[in-house]
Amino acid sequence: MPLLNTLSSKEAMNLEHNYGAHNYHPLPVVLNRGEGVYVWDIEGKKYYDFLSAYSSVNQGHCHTAIVGAMKRQAETLTLTSRAFYNDQLGPYEQYITQYFGFDKVLPMNTGAEAVETAIKITRRWAYKIKGIPENKAKIIVCENNFHGRTTTIISFSNDPTAKKHFGPYTDGFIKIPYDDTNALQKVLETHNDIAGFLVEPIQGEAGVYVPSEDYLKTAKALCEEHNVLFVADEVQTGIARTGRLLASCGNCSCANKDCSDTPDVKPDVLILGKALSGGVYPVSAVLANDAVMNVITPGSHGSTFGGNPVAAAVAIAALEVIKDEQLTENAEQLGQLFRAQLNEYIKDSTIVKLVRGKGLLNAIVINDSEESDTAWNICLKLRDNGLLAKPTHGNIIRFAPPLVMTEDQLLDCVAIIIKTLKAFEV
Ligand SMILES: *Cc1c(COP(=O)(O)O)cnc(C)c1O
To answer: Is position 102 annotated as part of the catalytic site?
Structure first.
């Protein structure tokens, strides 16, 4: 067996291939160190990380404040389960609910678990508060959604790769086109058994689809009119990524109830994950006000690791970094600059059709078919040029660097991206 510290990239990839299930198709690069906006491979080559673990590492790799909080707590108390109280959870619950302006939080670990939790809360609310007959509650979801990988969640996916041969599926979901308030209105007007509308403020995995300006506001108003919960999955868009603390928050840069700007859209149920821990530890959360969250009673839901002391300490540190380093504002400014620079290039490009996104959640659409491998080949070349990104679909490349990037670094990255794209122009 090779010694771990002398492993080559080739050997590391072979080990994953031989001993790990093949549920991913990674870009061939083996990383062993990260700091801020950079990661390094085994051979010592340095890269800009332009994926940030799908927007988990918003605060940058190995942020000293977040890692420090984790180390301190890991040496003190790591896990009690919720059979007992612990001294970290209460202060964290107070901190996060005040931070986002909700009465209560339910702590979980992964994004998919938080989505599952939100679905359960929404269904319970439908039976206990709205009065929908037992087992009849429906949740409206959108086409091309991505909400995670559990059996229930893939039941309402329309991605055959994620869904096929995993049935039987969970009932109770109605799918409508994304960014279509007429379709939403129609379902709401023709059904009296709707519990909630589950939506991503920007569809990340689908290829960074930004809906039209008033979509969320109109959708929220329709939900209110029909006494239906508006459930926002901000696992990828939340925590400053889109130049706002929350993407559902419209033009306001924060959803804090003490904030002087009133948020455009305040979800009834807010789902967070990924960057809630700065990418150092799995932490997710569902937030709601008492009128909704109080449907959850002792024993009705839980998780052994959910709300553990390490997660609580890490999440507070991760949220503090967002405010202390003004990452929301930085994401907004650098996002504008990024799209302006790329749009300038795209004017005369035959290989790139467009750039879209908000803040530092962006994507370019390659002028080729969904089935082509052009986007993959561009990502290989970007890697060679020192920048790591990944296609979301055959012809879309997502660009989501850590939000701690400086303007100089961003311009350096734009230069790498344009140089790489130029090599593919015909
Ligand atoms: C990543 C993601 C999830 C799932 O999170 P996991 O931690 O991978 O389970 C859910 N919703 C959205 C919008 C996501 O981007």
So the answer is: no
